[in-house]
Write the structure tokens for this entry.
Amino acid sequence: MTQLSSGLILTVVFGYFIMLMIVSYFTGKDADNASFFTANKKSPWYLVAFGMIGASLSGVTFISIPGVVGAGGGNQAFSYMQMVMGYMVGYFVIATVLMPVYYRLNLTSIYGYLEDRFGVVSYKTGAAFFLMSRTIGASFRLYLVALVMDSFVTGPMGIPFAMTVAVTIILIWVYTFRGGIKTIVWTDTIQTVSMLAAVIFTIVAIGNHMGKGIGELWQMIGESGLNQVFFFEGGWSDANNFFKQFISGALIAIVMTGLDQDMMQKNLTCKTLGEAQKNIFSFSIVLIFANILFLSLGALLYIYAAHIGVEVPTKTDQLYPLLALKHLTPFIGIVFVIGLIAAAYSSADSALTSLTTSFCVDMLGFEKNDKTEAENKQTRFIVHVGFSILLFLVIILFNYINDAAVINGLFKVAGYTYGPLLGLYTFGLFTKMKIKDSLAIIVCVFAPCITYLFDYNSVNWFNGFKFGFMVLALNGLLTFVGLLLISDGRVENPVVLDN
């Protein structure tokens, strides 16, 4: 196949960026801090729902999930759908339990609930764990995309990896610094369309090259054995065990969407609670079909690679870009690049905005200080730049230390950093007990440390059992127990489930 030139690929990237800048220009007009943080509570729910698909999938799903389908380890075949089924339970909890609380308290940052329920220390601790979690998660995702660009485009042109990362972050900063979440609600929609279109076009192209229709391709996937969804026979030591994947999926959805300022900030831009709930329910249904689409692509990538005699890369994250850029048509190469950039921007732009929002509202107290709008806007600008620099530095660090599939690394890290948030919110919502707020930070620091100790020694201590993604459940449980130990009575009129 005719390969794309690096110059053409960069031209496509530049064109895509210009499109986002146009959207930013119109959505960022006369934007103030309320526009940046909440989009003035005027976002159409259906637009938020569709845009959230791209933000949830991101570069991890776009490249890593197709890559691991035939790799034979965690998330092999269609086992990832077990986790997606768990997601549905998690989204139901978000829509019926968490969203009513957030709207009742009229929150800009969801961590304001922790201050209302426990106190300032718990509030700051929860926000700090989010800042750490989202910085790591966004950096992982951007690292993946930058690595692909470096391997196939900028690297061969002699452009250093650090320069590739820097330019990527600068472009994201430029189109988000004015409108913030108001801009992102619209750009996420474009990015979702771009990602899904890239997958669909790639599947059709593989079918054309192999002389197969869609029905025949699905039959080939079945004959290959790569479409197995349920894994029960391996027991709890199996990374793909149904119960581990299902429970982990539910918890991951709750913490990485419902307890994550990044994802919830989009939902809180809806006018009413009812619209926000419609957004969550419709988004979760469409997400099922989107994941089936990505997994089908993954199976077909392995089938097509075997068909044309291409060796699967050691790092399976590179399988999709390898075939799209070097073994399929130039058109597929172009739509892949657009999908890849969309995947990078859909997660990184909202992450940068939510990090800025959380730091300004939770750490600097924007909603409580007596500064003018102009003064807060200037501070917000500085914070936005600061987090851009931080993301750059973390990605450069990952470039030296990462040696595993990004999808597994991302969820493993999330299991440690989101666990304390899971414990804090569970304790707050399901009990009426008051805690010694000053000790909350100690509990939230020790819980991940003890979790790591159990996870590291689980094979020896528990007869071969591996926690896998279940570290999130263990971490949250340990945090809950720790909060129980530092409880000292009951609060008056807490925001809990039965109110």
DSSP finds 19 helices and two strands in the chain. The first helix runs from residue 6 to 27. The chain has one domain: 6-407. The mean pLDDT is 83.
